[in-house]
Amino acid sequence: MYAAVGSMLPYMPLYYRSLGFSLAEVGSILALGALVGLLASPVWGALSDRLRGSPRVLLGATATALAGTAILASFSQPFWVAAGAAVLGAGISGLSPIIDARALETAGANREGFGPLRAWGSLSYIVAVLGTGIAVDEFGLRVVFAILSVMLVATGIVGLALTPAASERPFQTASRPLRDAGRLFGPRGLGLFLVGAFLTWLGMSAVLTYTPIRFTELGAGASIVGLGGAIAAAIEVPLMLRYPALSERFGADRLLIAGSVLTAARGVVAAFATDPTMLLAASIFGGLGFALFFIGGVTYVSRHVPPELAATAQGIFQGVGNSLAQVTAAAVGGTVAALAGVAGLFALAAIIGFVAAAIIAVAIRRTAAAPVPVPADRRLDTA
Predict the structure, then answer these.
(1) Would you list the DSSP string of 90-129?
(2) pLDDT tens, 130-172?
(3) Cα 166 to chain center, whole Å?
(4) Where do the structural domains in the chain lie, given as residue ranges?
(5) Is there a contact between 117 and 107 (Cβ–Cβ < 8 Å)?
(6) Confidence (pLDDT) at 107
(7) CA torsion 81→231→298→292, rounded to 10°?
(8) Is 130 in contact with 227 (CB distance < 8 Å)?
(9) Distance (Å, rounded) from C-alpha 9 to C-alpha 225?
(10) Region of residue 54 (phi > 0: left; psi between -120 and 50: alpha; otherwise: beta)
(11) Using alpha carbons only, what angle is made at residue 23 by residues 18 and 26, rounded to the nearest 5 degrees?
């Protein structure tokens, strides 16, 4: 899955620009895909929970993403590009909540063990983003779709073996997973944390989305764009592998807040970057921040929801926190970049990131003082 993301994420803005779309239009296309993902991610997660983690749901999401890839590879007219982006967003948004839920079950009661498992995703991302950058320089941007298709097919094949752990989910399903999980993210539960997560992802997404374009403005090629993504992922790997030890020493909540601060720091460095080398240096902060925030956020949510809502809760967290942030960053970011330049957009992203870190700190303190309630009327179906 993360090889698929690595072959796509840094290069789609460049592909849309190569078709002649303006910065604002590129932002609108990216926003459309993320908006569809926002709606689809919790639905895929709920369907997975309702069907007790059946791998067929993951296969359906993979097939949907492949259909979107085929549309984008076959057509260049604006309508079909928008349609392909929407279908791709609908499919690929369903992969992470399901895979993360299975990984959290594998980690067991010690949720911090999710970090070392997730490190393999960053390793594959490094290989894919570097390899795709080299391939793009050699064969052109359309090679992205061939690599993405191969990685999605592999995800579907391997995903057929992913089933929920029986000891973690003993034949239980939530009767209405979206409703039940949604209540956990209410104002008295994880709602404030979700706001902070959204703002953190917003600042992060604004920088990630427009960094490839900023690289081209500074005269860098596709291989340098890939190198920037690889540097960030390479920083993530050792942090994820050592996350259980770091959590034990510093506390998972402190690491989560630190991750939000570091993503904001990336925006600061990127805003002042005047050459590709300095922009590459910003990737170091991005890797540190993403590793701590993503692992911390996934485990934080998992500790506050029951097992039968695992995939649904991750779908809400990543759908609202990540996909909604991508929608906003892509749609609004294009306009801001057109008015203030990409560097000005990065500066705004940094400010948003620091505000987000403060909100997350308050949210963590609130949930620590008053544990998140499990809906009292949640009805379980038992086999």
Answers:
(1) HHHTTHHHHHHHHHHHHHTT-GGGHHHHHHHHHHHHHHHH
(2) 899 889 988 989 999 999 999 999 999 998 888 766 554 444 5
(3) 27
(4) 2-163+176-371
(5) yes
(6) 78
(7) -140
(8) yes
(9) 11
(10) beta
(11) 65
**For residues 44 and 93, is the Cβ–Cβ distance under 8 A?**
yes
Q: What are the tens digits of pLDDT across the range 161-218?
A: 887 665 544 445 555 676 776 677 776 678 888 899 999 999 998 888 888 888 888 8
Name which of 220, 238, 338, 246 is nearest 288 in CA terms.
238
Q: For residue 96, give the nearest of 125, 135, 70, 68 by alpha carbon.
A: 125
Pinpoint the alpha helices (H) of the chain. Answer: 2-8, 12-18, 23-50, 55-74, 78-92, 95-107, 114-139, 143-159, 177-184, 191-217, 222-241, 243-250, 252-272, 276-303, 310-318, 324-369
Chain Cα centroid distance, residue 209 = 12
The number of residues making up the chain comes to 383
Q: What percent of the chain has pLDDT over 70?
A: 90
- The rounded distance, in Å, linking the Cα atoms of 240 and 288 is 10
2-163+176-371: what CATH class?
Answer: mainly alpha
Start-to-end CA distance of the chain, whole Å, equals 32
Please give the distance of CA 167 from its chain centroid, rounded to a whole number: 28
Q: pLDDT, tens digit, for every residue of 356-383? A: 999 999 998 887 655 544 444 444 443 3
SS3 state of residue 140: coil
CB 11 within 8 A of CB 130: no
Residue with tokens 């390899």: 131
Tokens of 286: 């991005």
The encoded tokens of residue 284 equal 């170091």
CA distance 83 to 158: 28
Instruction: State residue 268's pLDDT score.
Output: 92
Q: Between the CA of residue 281 and those of 267, 277, 284, what are the distances in Å? A: 11, 6, 6
383 three-class SS:
coil
380 in helix, strand or coil?
strand
- What's CA 276's distance to the chain center, in Å? 25
Task: Give residue 378's identity as a one-letter amino acid code.
Answer: R
